[in-house]
Specification:
By secondary structure, the chain is an alpha+beta fold. It is built from one helix and four strands, in the order ββββα.
Length: 68
Amino acid sequence: MKIFRQLMETDGLGLFVVDAIHEDGVIQDIKVFSVKDRIVRNQYPCMMEDLTELIEKIQVLVTASLEG
């Protein structure tokens, strides 16, 4: 298993870090952490089922990183 880490920003969550745990490019788990004053803070209490749109975006980035 490998970890893909990405800094992202959305209107709903603001600035945050995503850790996507994947095997051969297929996301197995995802963790989302808040960022405040350039410091990674607390993990958001959410399940993968709550993050389908975010997972789709991260899956594209993970796949691209493995291809390039």
